[in-house]
């Protein structure tokens, strides 16, 4: 199989190469490669509405191709087999992709899809069995409806025409600068609104000299910092000052005004490695790249990390937890921090080797954290895995759960603790009996979950005196199904009528119990 001349001409214009292939459509598509990620046409459109995009293009006017990445087309052909029984894709997409098959312009029982590219939340797909492989149909599918619905289709040659050749790329850049030639440079707004360090641009120049601006974020902990002179220049420009501001700008509306054209996340990591203070470090990073932030902060030592956490644990709790667990630091007492720690401990159960993770990662500092968490709502997240992993004594967990249940004022909180007690800790009726006073108090809310999960198991083992305090609440459960279950549980004990009748006579559902007792006597 050979692509049509129109397709070949367009690929040639785009500087693409085609390696040898076996003649199948999949092989031919996989053989196509581009020297650099192809750009979609109209890549300058965002520059008329987004300040940051405009700044990047204007700052990199002499060499814009590498700087402009927002319209890159990701070319990476791979197969998907949602219609072929026995494949992993079939299992994953069965029932979801059913509506897709009738929309394909092929007559094949089990068509194989080839996802060829992605661009701005949209996937582009061809069918391996396309009857016209020389210029196959390309189906456009929104990622939010992936394999569920086709938006529209076009020929492969039309799809390639969406890519900009080098000449088209340069023409579009030139058109953009002709359009804005009478407008003030964006630097004017940066100077007006952003309170930058006067040496910031020199620091960014060093950042670029060391190729940090093109490096991968995962390499940030080990990238070079340059000579002593470069480090001093960079640190001088990064240790103070703002890197952004917000203002109303003509043509852009209320917008973020970045002071530089580089990735500020990466610039922040660069600043920490250079030696900014812990407080400054907390100002110039986010939790988007928490793993890299934690790795770099850890290299600065325990004192730096502790102070960094003091300034950042509320804004970046995941980073703080990671540092505390890794470095053996004293945990902060903030609610945000302890909730995050508790959530992370809870989520270990999603990992197949979660018991090992509990022991190696959470056990060393568990007692310190638990002493903070046990008096907060976060305790409900901790108890199930902590007991299962042997980090927390079950009896202590039960005491904590009932204490928290008694103190809860919101139905949602009570439900949470009831689930911990009944489902996670799986208390037996005799164990529940030890906390009868608390259960009776909470049953007064008549909440269904309390009666279903705590009271029903208790009813068969309680004395008449104990039942006289609890049954009135149980018979007023908010769910009819639960009230019927209470009646069924007590129906075989007509001897209770004498002691219970005075306290339940005015409760509507009590009549069902009286009737059940009468039937049992016959």
Task: Write a compact overview of the structure shown.
Helix content is 51%, strand content 9%. By secondary structure, the chain is an alpha+beta fold.
Describe the protein in words:
With 522 residues, the chain is α+β, with helices and mostly antiparallel strands. Among the domains are: 5-160, no CATH class; 185-276, no CATH class; 428-521. Helices cover 51% and strands 9% of the residues. It is built from 28 helices and nine strands. It has helices at residues 5-13, 25-30, 51-59, 64-67, 88-93, 156-160, 166-179, 186-193, 200-209, 228-238, 264-274, 278-283, 290-299, 302-312, 317-327, 335-347, 354-362, 366-373, 379-388, 394-407, 411-424, 429-433, 436-443, 448-458, 464-474, 480-490, 497-504, 510-521; strands at 17-18, 32-33, 74-80, 113-119, 122-127, 137-142, 152-155, 244-249, 253-258. The protein has a five-stranded antiparallel sheet with strand order 3-4-5-6-7. A two-stranded antiparallel sheet has the order 1-2. Strand 4 (113-119) and strand 5 (122-127) form a beta hairpin. Helix 24 (448-458) runs parallel beside helix 26 (480-490).
Number of helices: 28
Radius of gyration: 33 Å
Q: Helical content, roughly? A: 40-55%
SSE-based structural type: alpha+beta
Give the strand order, joined by hyphens, for the main sheet: 3-4-5-6-7
Fraction in beta strands: 5-15%
Low-confidence stretches: none
Kindly report the average pLDDT value: 94
The geometry reads as: extended
The number of distinct β-strands equals: 9
Taking the alpha carbons of the first and last residues, their distance comes to: 88 Å
Largest sheet: 5 strands, antiparallel
């Amino acid at each position: 199989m050979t692509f049509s001349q129109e397709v070949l001409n367009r690929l040639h214009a785009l500087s693409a190469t085609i390696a040898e292939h076996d003649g199948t459509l999949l092989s031919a598509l996989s053989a196509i490669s581009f020297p650099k990620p192809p750009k979609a046409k109209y890549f300058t459109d965002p520059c008329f509405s987004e300040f940051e995009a405009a700044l990047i293009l204007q700052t990199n006017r002499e060499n814009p191709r590498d700087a402009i990445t927002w319209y890159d087309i990701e070319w990476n052909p791979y197969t998907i087999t949602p219609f072929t029984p026995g494949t992993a894709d079939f299992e994953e997409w069965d029932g979801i992709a059913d509506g897709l098959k009738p929309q394909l312009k092929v007559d094949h029982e089990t068509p194989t899809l080839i996802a060829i590219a992605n661009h701005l939340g949209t996937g582009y797909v061809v069918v391996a069995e396309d009857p016209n492989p020389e210029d196959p149909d390309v189906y456009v599918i929104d990622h939010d409806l992936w394999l569920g619905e086709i938006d529209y289709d076009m020929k492969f040659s039309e799809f390639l025409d969406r890519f900009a050749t080098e000449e088209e790329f340069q023409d579009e850049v030139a058109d953009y600068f002709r359009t804005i030639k009478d407008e003030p440079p964006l630097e004017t707004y940066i100077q007006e609104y952003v309170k930058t360090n006067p040496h910031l641009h020199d620091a960014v120049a060093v950042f670029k000299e060391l190729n940090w601006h093109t490096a991968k974020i995962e390499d940030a902990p080990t990238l070079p910092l340059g000579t002593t002179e470069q480090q001093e220049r960079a640190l001088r420009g990064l240790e103070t000052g703002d890197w952004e501001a917000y203002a109303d700008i003509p043509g852009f509306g209320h917008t973020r005004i970045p002071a530089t054209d580089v990735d500020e996340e990466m610039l922040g990591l660069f600043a920490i490695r250079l030696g900014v203070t812990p407080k400054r470090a907390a100002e110039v990073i986010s939790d988007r790249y928490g793993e890299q932030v934690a790795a770099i902060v850890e290299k600065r030592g325990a004192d730096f990390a502790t102070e960094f956490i003091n300034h950042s644990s509320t804004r970046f709790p995941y980073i703080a937890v990671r540092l505390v667990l890794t470095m053996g630091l004293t945990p902060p007492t903030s609610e945000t921090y302890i909730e995050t720690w508790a959530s992370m401990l809870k989520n270990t159960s999603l990992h197949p080797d979660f018991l090992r993770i509990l022991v190696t990662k959470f056990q060393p500092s568990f007692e310190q954290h638990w002493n903070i968490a046990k008096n907060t709502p976060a305790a409900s997240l901790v108890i199930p895995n902590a007991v299962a992993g042997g980090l927390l004594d079950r009896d202590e967990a039960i005491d904590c759960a009932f204490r928290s249940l008694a103190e809860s004022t919101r139905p949602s909180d009570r439900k949470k603790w009831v689930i911990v007690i009944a489902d996670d800790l799986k208390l037996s009726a005799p164990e529940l009996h030890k906390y009868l006073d608390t259960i009776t108090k909470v049953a007064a809310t008549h909440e269904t979950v309390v009666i279903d999960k705590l009271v029903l198991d208790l009813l068969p083992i309680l004395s008449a005196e104990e039942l006289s305090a609890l049954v009135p609440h149980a018979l007023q459960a908010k769910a009819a199904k639960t009230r019927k279950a209470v009646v069924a549980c007590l129906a075989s004990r007509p001897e209770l009528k004498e002691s219970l009748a005075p306290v339940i006579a005015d409760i509507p559902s009590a009549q069902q119990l009286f009737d059940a007792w009468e039937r049992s006597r016959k």
